Amino acid sequence: xxxxxxxxxxxxxxxxxxxxxxxxxxxxxxxxxxxxxxxxxxxxxxxxxxxxxxxxxxxxxxxxxxxxxxxxxxxxxxxxxxxxxxxxxxxxxxxxxxxxxxxxxxxxxxxxxxxxxxxxxxxxxxxxxxxxxxxxxxxxxxxxxxxxxxxxxxxxxxxxxxxxxxxxxxxxxxxxxxxxxxxxxxxxxxxxxxxxxxxxxxxxxxxxxxxxxxxxxxxxxxxxxxxxxxxxxxxxxxxxxxxxxxxxxxxxxxxxxxxxxxxxxxxxxxxxxxxxxxxxxxxxxxxxxxxxxxxxxxxxxxxxxxxxxxxxxxxxxxxxxxxxxxxxxxxxxxxxxxxxxxxxxxxxxxxxxxxxxxxxxxxxxxxxxxxxxxxxxxxxxxxxxxxxxxxxxxxxxxxxxxxxxxxxxxxxxxxxxxxxxxxxxxxxxxxxxxxxxxxxxxxxxxxxxxxxxxxxxxxxxxxxxxxxxxxxxxxxxxxxxxxxxxxxxxxxxxxxxxxxxxxxxxxxxxxxxxxxxxxxxxxxxxxxxxxxxxxxxxxxxxxxxxxxxxxxxxxxxxxxxxxxxxxxxxxxxxxxxxxxxxxxxxxxxxxxxxxxxxxxxxxx
Length: 604
Ligand SMILES: Nc1ncnc2c1ncn2[C@@H]1O[C@H](COP(=O)(O)OP(=O)(O)OP(=O)(O)O)[C@@H](O)[C@H]1O
What we know:
It is found in: Cell membrane. This is Branched-chain amino acid transport system permease protein. A six-stranded mixed beta sheet has the order 8-9-10-5-11-12, sandwiched between helices. A four-stranded antiparallel beta sheet has the order 4-3-6-7, covered by helices on one side. The protein has helices spanning about 1-20, 25-50, 55-75, 80-100, 105-125, 150-175, 175-185, 190-195, 200-225, 235-250, 255-270, 275-290, 300-310, 380-390, 410-415, 435-440, 450-455, 455-475, 495-505, 525-540, 550-555, 575-580, 580-585, and strands spanning about 135, 225-230, 340-350, 355-365, 370-375, 395-400, 405, 420, 510-515, 540-545, 560-565, 565-570. By secondary structure, the protein is α/β, with parallel strands linked by helices. Helices cover about 55% and strands about 10% of the residues. The protein is elongated and about 90 Å long. It is built from 23 helices and twelve strands. Strand 9, helix 20 and strand 10 (about 540-545) form a beta-alpha-beta unit. The protein binds adenosine-5'-triphosphate. Adenosine-5'-triphosphate (ATP) binds next to strand 4 and helix 14.
């Protein structure tokens, strides 16, 4: 931390002293470079952090620049008033561009945003109000009392201040709740939705943020150059911007800035060879994507790991972190009405074209119950979970939680209503640490509260620190504290399974759906898992568990529902179900048989 602050202070001094060393042409180049850096940070937020393909950044830039030009030159407004309106206009365009993000997936968004970028250049080239191919000249230089901003040296300081502000804000977003939710969405939007991240609205927010950065850069550009023309906002420049972000390292905002500065310099050197320049950018982008996907920002870490592999550097002394015992939850108060179902599934069917994955299934799960769902492969168990947790809209039937109809609600809405789940094939966020995985679920922030980032940043920061403490407490309970800063993919399989349950519990659910939680665990790990599930039930959370490990089902579950071909063939206490002729027949030919209960009723 101390080194970082020292480095930052040194950079600030260099940036402050820069004008003293440069001639006016070079100063102009630096000013343009800063504009690209602001644009790249905005693009990095949308693409690198939130994972949304955004080829409209150059159009946002253009809207900011043209709106300033039209409002000052044609409408006669003062520069700063025009600047404010221009940024608002760009934000409005950002919201419009982000609207498809409410419905379509990221790769289609690439096409939508590319269309917008092309449409923008087309429109300004042909529109009278935008000055056609000649553009608009005579944009007044902005004025500040006592400071002559027509001087490139002084303009630099205005740009530098805005660059520092926009980069600082971007870093603040990345390292707090909003950025964490965006990174989770980028890594696995389905799992993010299941822990309560409002994926569609968050996607839109990413576009809104990118557009505001584009607007700020556009305003500064028109103030700097005093003239706007369509070629500045061409698709070739969009690809240059994209190259900056990819080469610099799209998952790091500082990397985006480094990429912007590096490519702006290369662009200056190759200014007389535009064709070669395009080929060179393309080649370097391809090489970066293939050989250094984390870009220049990830280079030190890669070089370090290569040096370690070659034995040039010693590996840091690693403390062998180990899984600690789970600390049981305090038992919750007894349920008020034992008979009232927490979950009710009524005549539910889910068909995929000809396949009846779930056929007219009805289930009642009363309070304080561990319900087992078993059945041969392909009997519809996971599909049932996917419908309950909102991933699929059922063909027919209803799902009620605490008596409230929640059929086909969005996954994030169901997570907020109290349904949490784990996945058959672990879906942890791979690029987030274990602590951040838990934090995403623990965090009650909503997209509509994003205004706090502008008006109450200190409050956001404090709240984040409190959440971190809560996350560490939860990791402690699950015996995972030693892994808080590890990437989940680096952990043993059994530990990852436990992290996923901890993440689901972080969402404070009423109902926990566990999809094959014992898959891949050894005997000891299965026993620990059973203790964890019992403690969760005793704390007042209802658990529905899909499992193939019949020994575990028999000893753990209070009640078992057996599915075959999408329909219920048996339902009752484990020992009754185990001897049901329908169940024995359904399992004939399966590798597993239904063993007798391993523990007595008293142990449950
Ligand atoms: N998205 C989908 N599209 C088409 N068919 C699907 C889809 N999801 C599931 N199915 C089909 O629905 C049926 C039930 O699948 P499901 O995964 O729910 O079974 P399962 O009981 O969970 O199986 P397993 O124990 O192997 O996980 C299968 O025939 C499967 O091929």
